[in-house]
Amino acid sequence: QEVTALLLSNGADINTQNNQGLTPVLMAIFMQNDELESLLRAAGASIPTDEMDLETVEDVVSYIEKLGIKPKRIPQMKTSIRDKNINAEIFFEIQDATAMLVALGVSNFHISWGDVFYRLMKAHQS
């Protein structure tokens, strides 16, 4: 956090992306570092959901496509959403990352991606 504060005080771009499209705040979320995430958000960092209108589960799947998370699994997610008749209200009531991945039919994702995705969705709601 001290390094982050130093970089910010010297004008570092808070929303710069690495080669994989990840920003510092996304990495903080991925590492489940709440203090760093808060520091970055307070400094003006945005997350992709800040600019997105995620009203339906289909919007969520489109968001996953945009992030490039497991693109080969997108058809599986769409099928799971239809088969389970998951609507946005049901989806956004899910209380943990594992349950969210199960609902999307991709419980074999590495759980850390589930955590990132879950926290992004919760950040979008707040």
Automatic annotation (TrEMBL):
Gene3D superfamilies linked: Ankyrin repeat-containing domain (1.25.40.20)
The name this protein goes by in its record: Uncharacterized protein
Organism: Ditylum brightwellii
